[in-house]
Structures are given as structure tokens and as C-alpha cells.
Amino acid sequence: MVKPTLKIKGFAIYKGFLDRLAQERLVEDIRQVAQAAPFVSPITPSGQKMSVRMTAAGPYGWITDRRGYRYAKHHPNGQAWPDMPPSVIQIWQNISEAARAPECCLINYYSEAARMGLHQDKDEASFDWPVVSVSLGDEALFRMGGETRGDPTQSVWLASGDVVVMGGAARRSFHGVDRIKFGSSALLSKGGRINLTMRIVT
Ligand SMILES: O=C(O)CCC(=O)C(=O)O
Ligand SMILES: [Fe+2]
Q1: Exposed, middle or buried by CB within 10 Å (0-12, 13-18, 19+), for 40?
Q2: In 10 A of CB 183, how many CB atoms?
């Protein structure tokens, strides 16, 4: 198994895990997914519109609306999510050591002003499985904390092709994206950042 470039607070960070060709192929596969399952601007349970736009692939997608945060088998438009592209599953197999296949690939799109507040990924049935996160496009300032919201945090710039594995103790750790360095990558023609997170949810 490959070794992480660095470990910060238990988060395993693999810089440059995907080369440019692999990134381009992944973007093309995500484009296909988004054609079948369009990005939406989700609403939090408290009624706030998220700045990140989302879609998903695989048996489950993560959704949020007035009724709460949850995994669902259908896009808000009622259709089943598209299959997870083999290119996505391959990354999980190369890096995760998990005995099960991912059930959800959440796809986040960050435009210039988008961010994601500090949160835990905790809607999954078990925290025994890692979350594998892939960055594509513009750089993002990724903040990592501990299991309690007030714990000290450390940040790292994630570039296109970087992969982060949130497993072990870091699986329940707070994390978020403070800002995007818009225009720092030429991968996406319109700029911005795509983040994929693969998860086992049942
Ligand atoms: O965009 C990222 O790097 C993190 C995304 C994230 O934490 C999530 O989707 O739960
Ligand atoms: Fe998260």
C-alpha cells in the first residue's frame, strides 16, 4: 500500500496521488454523472442554502433539506443516482484497505465563494470505514480538527490530484474548507473545485 505524504491530526494526506491524465479522466466521468444527476444547491435543516453544489453517484447519495441530513437512494428529482464510475472505485481500492466497496460518492462543487463549515461526517451507520476524499481543480484550504468542535485545528492547502483519507481516530474529526484559491488550476474550464468523497454508509 502507498504511504501518505504527510499525516496531520490523523488525516492521511497523499499529495499528487493522481496525475494529470487521471484527473482529466475523472473529471470527464464526473461530467457524465452530473449530466444524469444534476448538481443541486442543498438547503440545511435550518433553512440555509449551502454554498457548495452537490450531486452523487453509487447506491446512495447524501442529501439535506428541511427534513434533515441523510443518505438517500434517489436524487431530489426522484431518480436513482448514476453508477459510481470505475475510475472512482479504483481510487478507493488503491488507497483505502477497506474490505467493502464504497456505497456513495458525494460530489461537491465549489465556485469562487463557496466554503464548507467545520463538521463531522456522521450520517453513516458505522465509523469503522474510512472516508476517501479527492481534490480536483482549484486549491482549497482544508481545516482539520479533533473530535470536539473546540479542539485546535491545523490547515493544509489541497491541490488537484491530492487525496485525503479520514480513517481511524480522524474518522470522527471535525473538518471543513475555509476557502478556494479561484483560478489556481486549469483543470476545470470554468474554474472552481470538485471534491469527491467515497463512503460506506450502511
Ligand atoms: O471538500 C472537501 O475537501 C471536504 C468535503 C467534506 O468534508 C464533505 O463532503 O463532507
Ligand atoms: Fe466532511
Answers
A1: middle
A2: 11
Which protein residue has the closest C-alpha to ligand 1 atom 10? 121
Q: Nine-digit cell at 87?
A: 475510475
Q: Are 165 and 2 in contact (CB under 8 A)?
A: no
Write the residue with the smallest CA distance to atom 3 of ligand 1. Answer: 195
First-to-last CA distance in the chain? Answer: 26
Question: Average pLDDT for consecutive 10-residue bins of the chain (202 residues)?
Answer: 92 98 98 98 96 98 96 97 98 94 98 97 97 98 97 98 97 98 97 98 98
Q: Which residues does residue 7 pair with via DSSP β-bridges, in sequence order?
A: 12
Residues 6+ apart with CB under 8 A from 96: 130, 132, 165, 167, 198
pTM (predicted TM-score): 0.97
Q: In this structure, which ligand is nearest to the CA of 196? A: 1
Query: Which domains are assigned to the chain?
Result: 6-199 (2.60.120.590)
User: What values do phi and psi take at 9, rounded to 5?
Assistant: 50, 35
